[in-house]
């Protein structure tokens, strides 16, 4: 893979990751068009490194608002941290349970099964895109009517919905969690802040998992890891800047009642995925 390929994937990832349009679906389609196998460990690791770049973009972009919401007092920090941990814990438990169900029901309990094997399934990805598109469009009807805050029940429901985003590429995490927040009556700003706070907590765990998978499945030596790491770091930097631009776009459309347009895009892109794949 050349640096040009990494640059293209980084821009696609950075722009799409923080918009509710499923960056994974866009990156996987781009990988296929460039002749790469999206389920290969080195490609999933690159994708995770690109996610890392956008994670740092989230931290930089939301830091000021998080200081007011999450770090204004020690009591606020404890309460908000509890909700983030609660939602993430539910995501992890349900995500693992969902993976086990998929493995035993659809793959006969094969010991060689890994959830990444689903990433190359274009029909499944298109279905996930269409589903989240419909959810976003419906949620937009609730947009502008919310004044609620995050609480125990709402955080638990958001965490449960987020679990379905882990195995199904195309099921946008931000689209699903923000839309769920709108359904539950949470204000636009709080929904956006909480969704991306969850992303910052979840991403490091995914990075560690994919790095372990890369080493375990390939038996790579340190020199080989370094060879893969450099282009991935290059891509991470570019996905960071693209992610900042995407966040400004998302915030603008969410605040101005254009959330439904992301849903329409997901529906249209699901058709593209089917046609191109």
UniProtKB/TrEMBL annotation:
One GO CC annotation: plasma membrane
Top-level taxon in the UniProt lineage: Bacteria
Topology in membrane: Multi-pass membrane protein
Transmembrane segments: 46-63, 83-102, 122-142, 194-212, 233-251, 257-276
Compartment annotation: Cell membrane
Pfam families, alphabetized: BacA
Main localisation: membrane
Enzyme class: hydrolase
Lipid metabolism listed as a keyword: no
Keywords per UniProt: Antibiotic resistance, Cell inner membrane, Cell membrane, Cell shape, Cell wall biogenesis/degradation, Hydrolase, Membrane, Peptidoglycan synthesis, Transmembrane, Transmembrane helix
One BP annotation, GO: regulation of cell shape
Cross-referenced HAMAP family: Undec_diphosphatase
Additional record remark: Bacitracin is thought to be involved in the inhibition of peptidoglycan synthesis by sequestering undecaprenyl diphosphate, thereby reducing the pool of lipid carrier available.
Primary role: Catalyzes the dephosphorylation of undecaprenyl diphosphate (UPP). Confers resistance to bacitracin.
Name the record gives this protein: Undecaprenyl-diphosphatase
């Amino acid at each position: 893979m050349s640096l040009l390929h990494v640059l293209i994937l980084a821009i696609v990832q950075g722009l799409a990751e923080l918009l509710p349009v499923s960056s994974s679906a866009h990156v996987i389609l781009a990988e296929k068009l460039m002749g790469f196998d999206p389920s290969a460990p080195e490609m999933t690791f690159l994708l995770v490194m690109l996610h890392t770049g956008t994670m740092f973009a989230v931290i930089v972009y939301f830091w000021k608002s998080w200081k007011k919401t999450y770090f204004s007092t020690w009591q606020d920090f404890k309460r908000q941290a509890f909700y983030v941990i609660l939602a993430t814990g539910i995501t992890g438990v349900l995500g693992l349970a969902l993976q086990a169900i998929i493995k035993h029901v659809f793959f006969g309990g094969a010991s060689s099964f890994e959830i990444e094997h689903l990433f190359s399934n274009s029909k499944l990805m298109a279905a996930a895109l269409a589903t989240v598109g419909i959810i976003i469009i419906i949620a937009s009807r609730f947009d502008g009517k919310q004044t609620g805050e995050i609480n125990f029940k709402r955080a638990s429901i958001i965490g449960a919905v987020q679990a379905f985003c882990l195995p199904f590429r195309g099921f946008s995490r931000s689209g699903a969690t923000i839309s769920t927040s709108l359904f539950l009556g949470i204000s636009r700003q709080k929904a956006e802040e909480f969704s991306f706070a969850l992303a910052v907590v979840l991403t490091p765990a995914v990075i560690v998992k994919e790095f372990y998978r890369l080493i375990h499945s390939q038996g790579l030596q340190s020199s080989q890891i370094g060879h893969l790491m450099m282009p991935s770091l290059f891509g991470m930097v570019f996905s960071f800047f693209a992610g900042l631009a995407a966040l400004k776009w998302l915030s603008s459309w969410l605040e101005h009642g254009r959330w439904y347009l992301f849903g329409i895009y997901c529906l249209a892109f699901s058709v593209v995925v089917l046609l191109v794949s």
